[in-house]
Amino acid sequence: MLNRIYGICGNRLYWIAGAAYLLLMEAIALYWQYALEYYPCALCVQIRAWVYGAMFSAIFGAFVSDKFWLRWSALTLTLFFMGGALYTSWYSYGVEMGTVISSCSMGAGFPEFMMLDEWIPVLFRADGFCGQSPQMWFGLSMNQTLLVTLGVPTFILAAQWVLHLPRMAASAN
User: Fold this and answer.
1) Is residue 52 classed as helix, strand or coil in its secondary structure?
2) Considering the domain boundaries, does residue 133 fall inside one?
3) Which single residue of 51, 56, 122, 156 has CA 20 to 30 Å from 77?
4) Nearest Cα to 96, choosing from 129, 48, 133, 42?
5) What pTM, to 2 d.p., does this model score?
6) Is the CB of residue 82 less than 8 Å from the CB of residue 50?
7) Is 158 exposed, middle or buried (0-12, 13-18, 19+ CB in 10 A)?
8) DSSP E strands: which ranges in the chain?
């Protein structure tokens, strides 16, 4: 069973499906932004940036899925970006529920060396207010939906990362 889960990570289609899943998440977010006019807040565009990072690292993983160390690097990068998106989603959920007091401003909050809101404003401009997450499917807010749609894949990636560890130790000997 564990070998089967480990083997999935070496399949190029797995990585392509992961990148497509993340692209679908971004498409849904852009639909809500531009068609339904629910504008993202600073935390939302930061989550979007994390998801784009995960998507690009998954695309990288599709190209290197047959090479152990490069695949492990892609897995680590994707897990890092998904973890960042999940953490920021959790923080945004805390702001929404009132358990986190935030000084969320109208700016996107990107560092000066990576001003995504100025470089690509159609994707990363923050025009909404923090703590106002729209209702989505099944009565869940967008933040709650993000916790599920990011949490499950992050757990799967973490399990696959752990399954790579014994093989890394074996190759070090």
Assistant:
1) helix
2) yes
3) 122
4) 133
5) 0.88
6) yes
7) middle
8) none
Quote the CA–CA distance of 4 and 147 in Å, as a whole number: 27
58, 146 in Cβ contact below 8 A?
no
**Residues 142 and 128: beta-carbon distance below 8 Å:** no
Domain count, the chain: 1
- Residue 38 banded pLDDT, cuts 50, 70, 90: confident
Q: Which of 138, 1, 169 is nearest to 72 (CA)?
A: 169
The sign of the dihedral angle between the CA atoms of 51, 81, 89, 15 is positive
The pLDDT value recorded for residue 73 is 93
CATH number at residue 96: 1.20.1550.10
